[in-house]
Fold this sequence. Notes:
The chain has helices at 23-34, 63-76, 86-102, 109-128, 171-174, 188-197, 219-227, and strands at 2-3, 14-18, 38-45, 80-84, 133-135, 140-144, 150-154, 177-178, 232-235, 241-245, 272-277, 282-286, 293-303, 312-317, 324-332, 335-344, 352-357, 360-372. The strands form four sheets. Strands 13-16-15-14-17-18 form a six-stranded antiparallel barrel. Strands 4-3-2-5-8 form a five-stranded parallel β-sheet, sandwiched between helices. A four-stranded mixed β-sheet has the order 10-9-12-11, with no helix packed on it. Helix 1 (23-34) packs parallel to helix 2 (63-76), helix 1 (23-34) crosses helix 6 and helix 3 (86-102) packs antiparallel against helix 4 (109-128). Residues 52-59 have low confidence and may be disordered. It folds into three domains: 2-204, 3-Layer(aba) Sandwich (Rossmann fold), CATH 3.40.50; 229-287, SH3 type barrels (Roll); 292-372, Elongation Factor Tu (Ef-tu), domain 3. The protein is globular. The chain is built from seven helices and 18 strands. A hairpin with a 5-residue loop joins strand 6 and strand 7. Belongs to the MnmA/TRMU family. The record marks 138, 351 as: Interaction with tRNA. GO terms for molecular function: tRNA-uridine 2-sulfurtransferase activity.
Amino acid sequence: MTVENLAAPQRRLRVLAAMSGGVDSAVAAARAAEAGHDVTGVHLALSANPQSFRTGARGCCTIEDSRDARRAADVIGIPFYVWDLADRFREDVVEDFVAEYQAGRTPNPCLRCNEKIKFAALLDKALALGFDAVCTGHYAKVLLHEDGSRELHRASDMAKDQSYVLGVLDERQLAHALFPLGDTVTTKDEIRAEAERRGLAVAKKPDSHDICFIADGDTQGFLASRLGKAEGDIVDESGAKLGTHEGAFGYTIGQRKGLRIGTPAPDGKPRYVLDISPVNNTVTVGPVDALDVTALTAIKPRWCGTAPAGEGAYTAQLRAHGDETPVRAELVGAELRVSFEEPVRGVAPGQAIVLYDGTRVVGSATIATTSRATAAA
């Protein structure tokens, strides 16, 4: 098994490079072109009104970003286009995000964007136009077997690894994916230095960390503007009312700040969100140890290759920048059942769980229910 080597490709590919306007995607496109591939750059217009997304040089979804991407393509010397995927993005990412919060779940829009936009809508269009692969600036790597099958693995630089948000890709999608930044130990400082050597103006452009379609970073305000305010009760584990809220969608499991509870806990310790019930618009809070999760079930599994058979030992990652934790997992019908060796906290329905076998990404699924050490969620 070998890493697909862009520096010495087995054949010249027609590559569509998704260029966000940030430094990572620009360097990825440059590396693919330097490797001898026939590269075309494309920027995805994801908003019918780009000004409704964040402004400033942040690396995604604004008019400035499309211009930065175009300038980078000019320097690299590749054709460049802007493709309008605003309708698909609104339906598959933004509306899904709002609906998940409305249902009391905590979604990951970046993961959904990779699944529905970059490696579904974009890839399907690319293949229809005769391209062989889509290239992105993600930090991950694809390993190629002698039989032609592929595996998704963590990036060599664990500090920049983004395999978690790529765990939704299936083997067909991996067969048409290029990640030029993930196959060498490359730090972000080195990427910026490389961009500068290549004459790319995005070399010093700040990274994007927020949700691209929430302009000011105020998730609660964004949701309230679409769902409206809906006052409800904040209660403790016994059901006693402690305060009120203006919308259960504004809370996530494990949240500590902004609870607006006037009555202190009997033990004087902080309280955390334990449960969100959209049915009666109630938020339940309690002590931190009540967040300890020992097991979970997850739905809609997607496998980066063949689905695992029987129960197995893996490590799991529960958030984009979270640590790995040892688990045992088994696919029962269409449901993934996972038990943790040690309790974990901050696990919420709607989040993705990604399973790993060493550095290999086995697959991902959406958390549906959790079992806690002290109570069932």
